[in-house]
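It is worth pausing here to work through a concrete case rather than discussing structure prediction in the abstract. The textbook approach is simple: state the sequence, then state the predicted structure, then interpret. We follow exactly that order.
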Amino acid sequence: MGFFSSLDVGASGLTAQRVRMDIISQNIANANTTRTENGTPYRRKEVLFEERSGTGSFSDALSAASDKLSDGQGVRVTKIIEDSSEFKKVYDPGHPDADEDGYVSMPNVDVVTEMVNMISATRSFEANVTSINATKSMAMKALEIGK
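Step two, the predicted structure:
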């Protein structure tokens, strides 16, 4: 893996974790949104990642690994999906979105879970920054050898 490849891997991790943090922030901001444009409560969103790979099939990857070390290409966001779990029901007969029994369908967002996910995304972001800084430090040390 070359110098620029390791920077690309770290940068792809930073980008992916930034998207994850944006979606988590959107979930937290809409934790009490009972009506969206389509008339339903807000649905929690999740980010799906996958490895960016230069190889196609498993046999191609196996052949490449047997010839030389396989260098990964980082990570990318494949899609943002909606959580299909049930909405929470809260008894609030005075709410404008209450049904005939007085229950309001609330978003399927758990703020505590979202905060844990935010901490995880922040730590992953920091790990990618550390990786990039370590790569830069090694390059600077290599340049100092020639002095």
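Step three, interpretation. The first helix runs from residue 3 to 29. The radius of gyration is 22 Å.
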